[in-house]
Write a structure and sequence with these properties.
single chain, about 300 residues, mainly alpha, MetI-like fold, 2 domains, ABC_transporter_permease, Carbohydrate ABC transporter membrane protein 1, CUT1 family (TC 3.A.1.1.-), transmembrane helix
Length: about 300
């Protein structure tokens, strides 16, 4: 009798806990329902849809038959895709490195409590407020061999001056890099500056008492303390690099030839221009895999490590 009553009490306690779990903050749960449905249906559902149809031979409509890895075999056998991947790797490595270094150096300069800091910070952050389409068009005008900087300098008598990078297949990637740095360095500077301003003032007092040079304090003491800011900056910049599309379309349209192609443009062209959904979805799946390679280590460092420490 005692065991039966104890079992009943345990069951009633479990039911009470489940009821409280669903009824607690019921208004917040109701308000979050549309977002949860959106995530499940649009993001997760469309991701699974993309992966599934990347294994089919779909053309204009997603109605093809299952062909296994044929689309991926064809993808990596296409010179245009291989060029776009190499361009993205080259652009990503140098863009990420230069953006972090230049952003940190600018943040260090801003951290010296200079006059008109707010004005300089606004000026440096202004390019980030522009879309990549606007950035691409601006730099297309600047680098235009006839109407841009080259034409202006030659009209002034400097016939030797050359700045026709967007017309040269061996230099066009540098043109993209310059435009990308102009766009993103200010945002990186603001992130770094926020991290620097979060460092305890006692650290600086202790370093001055110990006679440590300022540059060594920044490099070996302050920078390691900004790990969270650095990881966030790398993730934001890295995910943006993988999705690089509009800057290329506005500045070079993938040319000359295919010398400035990127994976996102490859996906768009095959899905909406060439009418080959299967090939486009295979390419987009590879882009998704690249983003996951960036996101998963970040999530592990930010959340997995904390769980172990606690």
């Amino acid at each position: 009798m005692t065991d039966a009553s104890a079992s009943e009490r345990q069951e009633s306690g479990t039911a009470r806990y489940v009821r409280q779990l669903f009824t607690r903050n019921i208004s917040a749960k109701i308000a979050a329902t549309p977002m949860i449905v959106t995530v499940l249906v649009i993001f997760i559902g469309c991701t699974l849809w993309t992966i599934y149809y990347s294994f089919t031979n779909s053309r204009l409509l997603p109605t093809g038959t299952f062909v296994g890895l044929d689309q991926y075999t064809r993808l990596f056998g296409t010179s245009r895709w291989n060029v776009s991947v190499w361009n993205l790797i080259w652009y990503g490595v140098f863009s990420l490195s230069f953006t972090l270094v230049i952003g940190f150096l600018l943040a260090v300069l801003m951290d010296q409590k200079i006059r008109f800091e707010s004005a300089f910070r606004t000026i440096m952050l202004y390019p980030f407020a522009l879309s990549f389409i606007v950035t691409g068009l601006v730099w297309q005008w600047i680098m235009n061999p006839t109407l841009g900087l080259q034409g202006t300098m030659r009209n002034l008598g400097f016939d030797w001056f050359t700045f026709d990078w967007i017309a040269r297949s061996d230099m066009v990637i540098y043109a993209l890099l310059i435009a990308g740095l102009w766009q993103g360095t200010g945002f990186m500077m603001v992130l770094m500056l926020a991290g620097l301003r979060g460092v305890d003032e006692e650290i600086w007092k202790a370093s001055r008492v110990d006679g440590i040079p300022t540059w060594r304090t920044y490099l070996f003491i302050v920078l390691p303390m900004m790990r969270g800011v650095l990881v966030t900056a790398v993730v934001l910049a890295g995910s943006g690099i993988v999705r690089l599309y509009d800057l290329v379309v506005a500045l070079t349209r993938g040319g000359p030839g295919i010398s400035s192609e990127v994976p996102a443009k490859y996906v768009y062209d095959y899905m909406f221009t060439a009418g080959n959904i299967g090939q486009g979805l295979a390419a987009s799946t590879m882009m998704l895999l690249t983003v996951m390679i960036i996101i998963i280590p970040w999530a592990y460092l930010e959340f997995g490590g904390r769980g172990k420490k606690s």
